[in-house]
Write a structure and sequence with these properties.
241 residues; Undecaprenyl pyrophosphate synthetase; 6-stranded parallel β-sheet; single chain; binds 3-methylbut-3-enyl trihydrogen diphosphate; 6 strands; 43% helix; binds magnesium ion
């Protein structure tokens, strides 16, 4: 147990809130609320486990297409949970970052997120990265537009566009790629999450619905990660040597 390698960066697609609620005959909103409670616990748990970066997919660019009722319930939950998360991350020395296009959120929500980021910017124990209105395609398009503008202004030659350069224009610019991507609820797809960044990540799928995710499920994922032989296109992972 103690000799398990803890992945540096774990990214989680938190799926299954709706099904969790449905199984209990509850409205979807209460599934999302239970999911937020789980997230609150897991931020602490991941920091205690020694994970250095935790990224969670909280709201996708496609999630705006859900019913108006569900979208506004989610926005209300974000409003309610920001101060609660703040207490946890302040107590645990966790730094909050946001990836995704925040500009589509209401000003009060954006202010809450700004405050979360600013009050934790010096924290060093773990980076907690919230993917909000995030989609890989949107992120790449926004990056390519900026690169195109630089090129059009003559600040950049097309041959200077490299993997490193594109990476540096993504929302994740200074965040290392995830080592382990977990998706809950039995679905086995990325749904537009960190598609560029997870090129060589290990993928782990569990049937557990996100509200039921706990320390034990996390450790099962980490054990599975430890049993994999990591390869990076013909090169073995440094941990294998
Ligand atoms: C994930 O749970 C939470 C968000 C996408 C915001 P879902 O709402 O997708 O739950 P299911 O997939 O319907 O069970
Ligand atoms: C992915 O889950 C998005 C989040 C977890 C925020 P979805 O439930 O929205 O994805 P699809 O629709 O099943 O692909
Ligand atoms: Mg879902």
């Amino acid at each position: 147990m103690s000799d398990l390698i803890i992945p540096n960066h774990v990214a989680i697609i938190m799926d299954g809130n709706g099904r969790w609620a449905k199984r209990r005959g509850l409205p979807r909103r209460l599934g999302h609320k239970a999911g937020c409670d789980t997230l609150e616990r897991m931020v602490e748990d991941c920091a205690d486990t020694g994970i250095r970066i935790l990224t969670v997919y909280a709201f996708s660019t496609e999630n705006w297409k859900r019913s108006g009722d569900e979208v506004s319930a989610l926005m209300q939950l974000f409003r309610f949970y920001i101060p609660r998360l703040k207490k946890r991350v302040m107590a645990k020395n966790v730094r909050v970052r946001v990836i995704g296009d925040e500009s589509r959120f209401d000003e009060d929500l954006r202010e809450g997120l700004r405050d979360l980021k600013e009050s934790t910017r010096e924290h060093t124990r773990m980076d907690f990265v919230l993917a909000l209105n995030y989609g890989s395609r949107d992120e790449i398009i926004r990056a390519v537009r900026k690169i195109g503008t630089e090129a059009a202004q003559g600040n950049l030659l097309p041959e200077e566009i490299s993997e490193e350069l594109l990476s540096s224009y993504l929302d994740t610019a200074d965040i290392p790629d995830p080592d382990l991507v977990i998706r809950t609820s039995g679905e086995e797809r990325l749904s537009n999450f960190l598609m560029w960044q997870s090129a060589y990540s290990e993928l782990y799928f569990t049937d557990t619905l996100w509200p039921d995710f706990d320390h034990e499920t996390l450790m099962e994922a980490i054990k599975a990660y430890n049993s994999r032989e990591r390869r990076f296109g013909g090169r073995k992972g440094e941990n294998d040597e």
